[in-house]
Structure formats: C-alpha cells, structure tokens
Amino acid sequence: MQVQGYFDLRFESVRDTFASLFEGNRQRGAALCVQVGGETVLDLWAGTVDAANEAVWHSDTLVNLFSCSKTLAATSVLQLVAEGRLALDAPLAGYWPAFGRNGKEAITLRQVLCHRAGLPALREPLPAQALYDWQRMTCAVAEERPWWTPGDGQGYAPMTFGWILGELLRLVDGRAPGEAIIARVARPLGFDLHLGLGDEAMARTAYLGRVRNDFGDEGAQRLMKAVAADPASLVGRAFGNPPGFLNSGNKPEWQRSVLPAANLHGNARSLAGFYAALLDGRLLAPELLAEMTREHSLGEDLTLLARTRYGLGCWLDQPGQPGATFGMGPASFGHPGAGGCLGFADPERQVAFGFVTNTLGPYVMMDPRAQALAQAVGDCLS
C-alpha cells in the first residue's frame, strides 16, 4: 500500500510504522498528522475509502471521529465559561430550567464535563429514530434521574454528554449546537471539521468497515458481555438506548445529524490542528486550559468497567495501564474515538497528534494502532 503525504526525515520510522498498518490488508484506510511546536512533521494518508475497497484515500478525505468529538464540544462550552456566560460550578438548572428536576437540581457543568453527573444513560427505552430528534433527546435527558448521587462516582457518558453540552450551547450561545461548535473551534482556524454533513462533505467521507478477526482486549470483551447480558442495566442503556448508534456511522441520517458526543467528521490534519490550537492558546487561555487538563476524576468507571481518569471534556493519561495511555508523555490529554481514531496533545513536548481510520477496531479505550504511532513519535523525540 502506497503511503501519500509528507514526513520530516527525523520521523521516517513513524512513517514506516504507519505503512505497516496496511500489511495483510487488515487496514482499509487511515491518515496521521503530527505537529511539534506548531510545525507539521507528519501528514500522511493511505488506503481506500469505499465499501468496495477500490477508491483511494485523498488528502481531504473525512471520517467519523466518534468520541473525539467530545473535546471539541467541551472546548466550545469552556469558551462560554471564559466569556462569563456559563459557570463551572453553578447548577445547570439555572441555564436550563427543565433540567433541574428528578434529583438533578444541583448538577453542575464541571460534573458533566468530568463524567461525575450520574447521567451516562437513559432508562426509558427509545426507538432508533429518536437519536436524530434533538428535542426528544434533550427532553429525555431533562426527565432522567441520576444513576448515582452526582459527584460521588464516575461513569463515562457516551451520548448524553453531547445532548447536555449541546443544549447548553443552544440556550446560552443562541446558535444551533452544531453551528456553535464549528463556529467556535473550527471555522475561525480553517479546520476541515463538520457536525452535520452537507452534500459536498458527504461525498468526501470514508465508508466505515471493521477489523476482521479481532475481538479486542479483556476490557472490550468484558464490556460487550455486560451490554449483552443486561440491556436494561446502566451499561446496556448507555450503549444501547437509543438502539443502533454503535452501527449507524454509514447511514445518511447519522452523517447529516448533529450529535456533539459522537459524529464530528474530519481528518487527521484538522484533529492535530485542534490540539495545537489548544496548546498555543488560540482556543482557550492558559489558565482555563490548565483547569481543563488537571485531574478531576479518577477511579473505576461505572460505564466502561475500567479505571478511567478525566479532566474537563478530555481523558488524561494513565501511564501504567496499557489500554489507558496515549503512548507519549504522562501529561498528555485528549480523547479516543470508538474504532480507533485518536486526538491528543503532549504539552511537555509540544506535540499535537491526530490519527483517523475507517477500519474500526473493537477496543473500548485506546486503540493499539494509534498508541504504536504515538510511541513511535515519542521515540523520535527522545
């Protein structure tokens, strides 16, 4: 498989690691971009984008970034905090009155951002099409009661995270959630990122397939067994209500909708650019970035059934845990996306990293492909 793009000769070993992903035809398409100190040192792509595995990946190919979306949504909300229009520790009900019932009266933005609000899932069964009905989903969130006392535990919120932040943006910013996020963190800096694809962007979007004969690590298998064993449990509802969202990435209705937790579309170049803009202060002031990236929550995650460590809208590195490290410095922060995409920054080395793929792996936390690439970058900087 021919690798396209640019690499600084100091990072030739990373280019080789990227090329090795395509050995054995297990990888359909992917792209990698890395900036160091604001300089692009790698901007690579290879493979195919279509279901027939024939059309080649281009420099402007887009892919669903899944939960990499969350940090961009969080950054948009933190900009409202910087503007004095939201407060991290004020009850959300002050901005969204319908939210303040059924035990949610005191839940704060900080608790939502670090997954301690007790709202990772919705108990009332919803039909698949509800996923694309913004009003129905935000009303369902407003009616939900916490699964635990807010602040007393942590549990990753795969989808509700986006409806909560998106509704706050709609109410406080005044623009539709997708428009607000893109206008705040993407358009001013020229990033090729989209929430709700138009026709032109859809034509550039890669078809998603799955890695064959890979059942993931112990954590992935444990989570999938829990979902299957009890669909009405917290874990079952978090990943299965509304049903089907884990398998909807190729559907036009998914691509055209705005789901701030899960369906941002973009490329590796823009994902790395976003983290570079966080590092150099173009998106958040240094004091607010420090607050975003300090440890807010650490422990056993009631949703992911694994040890997680969160800042505000981002994951923090856990160097001693193979599935929970970005593969570079211990101060790294960012967010993985289901299936293998990864965006993060290492502030100590001034690295901004973006990896995207249309070949979805089964891992719950960090994908080994992205970790191997990050480790290779770190080795080049040692």
From TrEMBL:
Q: Which Gene3D superfamilies match?
A: DD-peptidase/beta-lactamase superfamily
Report whether Transferase shows up as a keyword of the record: no
Pfam families, from UniProt? Beta-lactamase (PF00144)
Checking InterPro entries in the record gives: Beta-lactam-related, Beta-lactam/transpept-like, Beta-lactamase/esterase
* Single GO MF annotation: hydrolase activity
Taxonomic lineage is: Bacteria, Pseudomonadati, Pseudomonadota, Gammaproteobacteria, Pseudomonadales
Where the record annotates domain Beta-lactamase-related, the positions are: 17-375
Name of the protein in question: Serine hydrolase domain-containing protein
* Annotated source species: Stutzerimonas tarimensis
Keywords on record = Hydrolase
